[in-house]
Amino acid sequence: MRAAGQRAVGLSIGAAALLMLGSCDLGPDYHRPALEIPPAYRASTATAATAWPSADWWRGFGSPELDSLIGQAERENFDLLAAIARVQQADAQVRIAGAALLPTLNASANANWTQESLANYGRSGRSATSTIDLHDYTAGLNAGYSVDFWGKTLASRQAAVASAMFSRFDQQTVALTVVTSVASTWFNALGFADQLAVTQQNLADAEQTLAVIRGRLAVGTASALDVAQQESLVEGVRASIPNLRSEMEQQLIGLGILVGRPPEAVTARPGTLAMLSLPVVTPGLPSALLERRPDVASAEAQLIAANFDVKVARAAFFPQVQLTGSAGFENVALSTLFGPGAFLASAAAGLTQPLFDGGTLRGQLEQAKGRRAELLADYRKAVVQAFTDVDNALVAWRSASEQETLQRVATDTAHRAVDIARAQMEAGTADVTTVLTAETTYYADEATLVQVRLARVQALLSLYKALGGGWTEPSGPVPEQFPGLSPGVVPGSLALPIGGNVQ
What is the pLDDT of residue 340? Predict the structure, then answer.
């Protein structure tokens, strides 16, 4: 009767376990959230021709110095090297998480020696001491396995895979930021170099005009006030030169930290913005942008990892089953350790079911859900930010292009006015005030033209960055250089099961 009762209890426990296994639901699988994707950009039309940036888009500017600087940054930039190291850490974490899906096996060997002293009493009542040596030798294997009934370990590994992809996308985002920062700093240096060249030329022209006015003062056709006014203009132009040199040098110094070298090692010298080529770049449809922004891909990878973290937190409520076993040999003599009479073996199974933890597991689940909700908002924000960046860059590019055309006309007109005013002054038909006014206007228009040209180049650079800088979301099996990620896992979608919405 007792045996029959034990069998009945065993069957009941087994049935309950199967019932729990069949009814266990760790929540919906990941599915990309619904997004509001506009049919076209606000600053463009849906029928506009598409011209995406190439992977080495910076070469389109035709600046060998820029190509060299970006090459150095790709090899030596500190932020980029740190991001690559984070990828290595994430890949290692995938291995760690995946190891729990496999059994553990350990080998052990021990040799113990013990000496005991014994006191013996003879007929005379006197004691004699003797010693006994005790030896014990063991060798064996221990195995353990945690049965992943509820998919907790698998979910942990999938979360690690998603985190590894986040690290990889984040590294590519850092790379894009580094490259565009180098280009932006270099363009700023070119802009200040142009302003310096324009100012130095304006200073030479103003000094030439001053010489003419002084000559007129010598013959009595100009006053001391005329000379003083022109001298004031000359000194004002001269005073702006040191600041322009300082600004240009600071941009060159700033390149050092970007290329991972001391500023003294940066030997590139700026030329002029006018020598840059400005290739045409136009975006496609907004829906295609999501596959070309590494920051959007990294935000989604984080969301996928958080979805699996919720599953891990849910699985913690269910029983954990541990299987252990050991086999080995034990003997008092090393020579007979592996004899047939020294063999030992054991096996055990254990089940642990949380009953009361003061709300720890419930708190961990709610925390995981909250983290997932946070990353969902971050992902949607990243998508909207991507559209915003493209629209802003398009508007800035279009505005700067139009403004440069108009400003060039204004500068050319002001230059003609200066030539006319100087000729009339030399002929005696115009006073110095007319020349001063014309020169002041021309100098301001030239400085503005340089600034507008720089703004146009920076707008094009912003458009390159907003369009992902030639990056495209990878597809297909994970390449061999991604260790720790199992074959068949697609980096873009992670080849993870998809089903319901994120809840």
Answer: 72
